[in-house]
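Budget justification aside, the reviewers requested a transparent look at the raw inputs and outputs of the sequence design task funded under Objective 1. We therefore reproduce one unedited record. The lines immediately below are the structure tokens for a 414-residue chain.
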């Protein structure tokens, strides 16, 4: 059985980004099922060199991935400009909604259709919205899976609101057009898969078949020995590149509402918590970087072997306050026996979380200072939660643990 596997703007890697991890998990599961994988990767020209440089630096990982494919093609494209005037935006939304929402699709279509005709796949696996839109507009008469990460229109709205910019009339037109196109992609797919239970409920109202929930999967890290103890002082870890919407907004909110009250509560501790920010900060906003420097945060930059920085039983925060998709970092943190402290909104779609069991889920950021201070002063509790997190990872977040779900889905698609 042959599959055309389509994804965009990342390597297939567990440590590049959450989206890349999600794509890699699907790729490895399909490979493990013995499906022939023909990869088409769409690379916007502004990010292409960064992705290719990463792959060159991680050459062993790259070679291992390429060795699991029958073919691999990179398609580099430029991002066309959207119309700027109100009249042109309204006209485009009415006559060519795909062209307004995802203008690159028009130029990518001919080569994609030619590739599909040459390969003759039994089914297509399309990761995220651009690839799904490209697939459904190409009208290929081939069954296909839409691997849904999040709603682009919703992310767009969150970004605008967070920047204190009003949604102008043209912004509302663009947002509603994105929603129309994304909805159409869901309707036209054979089946949709998501890692979020809340988004699955939304997708079920649109899709022709019930959405499948498959969490993001990772390769297990080293086993946590029974003799391992929590380190002091504890590290408070924020994981993820600082240009991603959830990471930027979450960390900004943490610095605004949590860090100073937390430090005040920890004044009497012998070992005060240390803030570590792990991930790409190169293009982060200067205001955020200045705040991080002012509180003495350690910015590690990208770390490709997370075992060197994520010590078991340290605290990992997810201070995001919106339910906008799959929390891909949650299983990664569980893999490393981190004590995850998060908001209810951030993990609303993650059925695997058990507050007080494998993590700490709080109503809002206002509850973070007290909870973090208590954990900082209680290594025994951190060890208990961290071990439960690792147990959850091994049960729910490995490729092998989800392989039967992939197998069942593919058998119903083809």
């Amino acid at each position: 059985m042959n599959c055309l596997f389509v994804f965009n703007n990342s390597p297939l890697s567990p440590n590049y980004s959450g989206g890349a991890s999600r794509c890699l998990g699907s790729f490895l599961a399909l490979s493990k099922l013995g499906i022939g994988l023909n990869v088409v990767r769409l690379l916007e020209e502004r990010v292409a060199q960064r992705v290719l440089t990463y792959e060159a630096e991680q050459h062993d990982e790259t070679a291992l991935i390429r060795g699991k494919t029958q073919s691999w093609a990179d398609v580099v494209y430029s991002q066309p400009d959207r119309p700027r005037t109100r009249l042109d935006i309204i006209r485009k939304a009415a006559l060519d909604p795909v062209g307004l929402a995802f203008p690159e699709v028009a130029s990518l279509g001919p080569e994609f259709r030619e590739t599909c005709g040459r390969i003759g796949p039994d089914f297509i696996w399309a990761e995220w919205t651009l690839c799904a839109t490209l697939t459904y507009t190409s009208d290929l008469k081939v069954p296909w899976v839409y691997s849904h990460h999040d709603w682009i229109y919703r992310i767009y709205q969150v970004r605008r609101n967070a920047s204190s910019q009003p949604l102008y009339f043209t912004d509302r037109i663009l947002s509603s057009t994105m929603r129309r196109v994304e909805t159409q992609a869901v309707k036209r797919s054979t089946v949709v898969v998501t890692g979020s239970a809340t988004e699955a409920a939304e997708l079920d109202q649109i899709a022709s078949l019930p959405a499948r929930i498959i969490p993001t999967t990772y390769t297990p890290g080293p086993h946590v020995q029974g003799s391992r103890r929590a380190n002091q002082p504890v590290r408070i870890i924020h994981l993820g590149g600082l240009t991603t919407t959830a990471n930027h907004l979450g960390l900004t909110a943490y610095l605004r509402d949590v860090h100073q009250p937390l430090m005040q509560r920890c004044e009497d501790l012998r070992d005060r918590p240390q803030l570590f920010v792990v991930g790409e900060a190169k293009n982060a906003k200067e205001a955020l970087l200045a705040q991080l420097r002012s509180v003495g945060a350690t910015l590690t930059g990208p770390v490709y072997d997370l075992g060197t920085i994520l010590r078991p039983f340290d605290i990992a925060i997810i201070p995001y306050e919106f339910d906008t998709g799959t929390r891909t970092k949650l299983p990664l943190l569980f893999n490393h026996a981190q004590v995850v402290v998060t908001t209810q909104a951030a993990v609303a779609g993650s059925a695997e979380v058990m507050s007080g069991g494998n993590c700490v889920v709080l109503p809002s950021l206002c509850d973070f200072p007290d909870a973090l201070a208590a954990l900082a002063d209680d290594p025994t509790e951190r060890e208990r939660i961290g071990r439960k997190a690792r147990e959850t990872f091994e049960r729910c977040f490995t490729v092998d643990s989800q392989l039967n779900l992939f197998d069942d889905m593919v058998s119903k698609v083809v």
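Residues 2-217+399-413 form a domain with the Rossmann fold fold (CATH 3.40.50.2000). The CA atoms of residues 193 and 212 lie 5 Å apart. Computational costs for records of this kind are itemized in the attached budget.
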